[in-house]
Design goal:
The chain has 6 helices and no strands. It has 150 residues and is an all-alpha fold. Helix 2 crosses helix 4 and helix 4 runs antiparallel to helix 5. It starts with 15 loop residues before the first helix and ends with a helix. It is found in: Membrane.
Amino acid sequence: MSTENIAAPRSPYLSHRKRNRFNIEKWGWIYMRASGVLLVVLIFGHLFYNLIFPGSVSVLDWAFVAGKFADPFWIVWDVLLLWLALIHGANGMRTLINDYAHGRFRSVLLVALAAATIVLLVLGTLVLTTFDPCLGETDNAELIARCAAQ
């Protein structure tokens, strides 16, 4: 058996047009790994700050959340958490749809997934970035001092 006619595994067999095409599956795979690592850090930081740091879950109320969102650091943290988690989940759903749905039904599901993802990203980002901690009444002295300084 001769192997003279078998091309090398990475030989330039494909045309130039196909080699330079954007590979969404490759970039989706890379995104899932990178976002997964970042999400572990973001989620455990979120859980630590909201559950361990205050000392008790009963402390979590509107004043706690308002005090947290008075600091731009936590707004950026939660927006990043929202975007990474939602796109990570949508990418996983896209993979499942591609594996199990076929034809026109697959296209409808992918469009519905994209629409739901975009709507949730926009609404979640608007809630996090337009939240005004000084609108409500509270007896939290730290929050009252921050709002008075504005």
